[in-house]
Here is the input.
Amino acid sequence: MKKIAVFTSGGDAPGMNACIRAVVRTARYNELEVVGIIRGYEGMITADFLPMNSSSVSNIIQRGGTILKSARSKEFRTLEGRAKAAENLRNAGIEGLVVIGGDGSFTGAKIFYEEHGFPTIGVPGTIDNDLFGTDNTIGYDTAINTVVEAVDKIRDTADAHDRLFFVEVMGRDAGFIALRSGISVGAEAILVPETETYIDQLIEKLRKGWERQKSSSIIIVAEGDDSGGAYEVAEKVKARFKHYETKVTVLGHVQRGGSPTAADRVLASQLGKAAVDALLAGRKNEMVGLINRKIAFTPFEKAIKHNHQINRELLNLADVLSM
Here is the structure.
């Protein structure tokens, strides 16, 4: 193998640039040519390739987002689109791929290999932390810290005005951000998609807190909770529990941005290097992750289908400490 390409796909995550940096510099260390594909799978179809070297990735390790951009590609979902992408890669002499993204990105890579034979290693870059085969995904730690910083400030206002705040965080299908950040900020309740929400129980918990003269409460709600988002839950509670003035804050895409934490920079660097090493070793169709501080590889199909399970012990911890 003499030439590889790296690209980012799907939602951006803090630390993607640190991973790009690691891929490029590891490739150059091994005397490989390396190109960046602009806007992911869409860039494959338009042949938007950028030759890269060590200086191309200088001063990016601290930046959020992705210098290679990201985009959804409807055309890549078609046989014709993937055939065009394969032709462009072959014409450019590209023999292997590193994709930084989530389950949709890995699904595309798996299909692309089955049809056109391009060996690909995936690096888990998503704030949701919902991929099987790694303890943490790139961007997850930064997203949690972003939520914690925001909620700490919200609690100041909640305490000053005896308010009940419902804070909605990202997590359409997984509650990892909600659970970790909720424990970190001392939330009175944490609502996640993995567990059923009982409004009666939530109201009873709030009532007991009121009786103990709690001056404020913070409820963390993952956007995919079965009872609805923060606005829906707040309306249900407000209708039956009028002791607090109720407010809602939706953090939204602020959780995707910002400079990556040290933990995300180190993780991204480890996984980026490991991805290039894996291609050189002949591996393909796998996601590289870190399990118990050791590099591990998981087939795309397993990483996609076997979702990372939420820690039930942490759910219990949150319930006990919210008393």
In short: The chain has eleven helices and eleven strands. The first strand starts at residue 3 and ends at 8. The CA atoms of residues 255 and 276 lie 29 Å apart.
